């Protein structure tokens, strides 16, 4: 460190870099060991970063990069949407259902990109900016399920009537995208999801993840 630099800012940026390099977050103890500072310093750094939504902590106390990092650049969300749109369009047209990319925002699931099919007589209305608790709806449940799975293992989640009466959802988490926690899914007006939808959503999630890497 030189006289012109800030040690606290340097440590805060190092925290963000460390969190960006892991898919499962880090505990205070793990950060303390990696930074070579005591836990009290880490707690203060995390508390400050949390105030700016740059870091979030889950119920287990693990710190992860917050969605505020995306807000630092106005063009980031548009870039994320742009990267995801080809896979979402293909998914929506193939399945005939509304497709969406959803990211974690604190304890909520936030839809950041939505594509509706062009050829169906009717479909579920869904909009970018729609948010709901992570533990309700296929998009959020897929993300929560991925936190418990080994790295690289992808599966789909199905729900019915949790967000809208008569609507069913299928979603698969994005895997292997550093600093981004989210899912790709579809929502349709049906009592049960056709068998091919789950695997197709998994394929779309992989396509989006590849586009974001």
From TrEMBL:
Domain IclR-ED intervals: 68-213
Alphabetized UniProt keyword annotations: DNA-binding, Transcription, Transcription regulation
Domain HTH iclR-type: 6-67
Pfam family, one: IclR_C
InterPro entries associated with the record: ArsR-like_HTH, GAF-like_dom_sf, HTH_MetabolicPath_Reg, Tscrpt_reg_IclR_C, Tscrpt_reg_IclR_N, WH-like_DNA-bd_sf, WH_DNA-bd_sf
Protein name: Transcriptional regulator
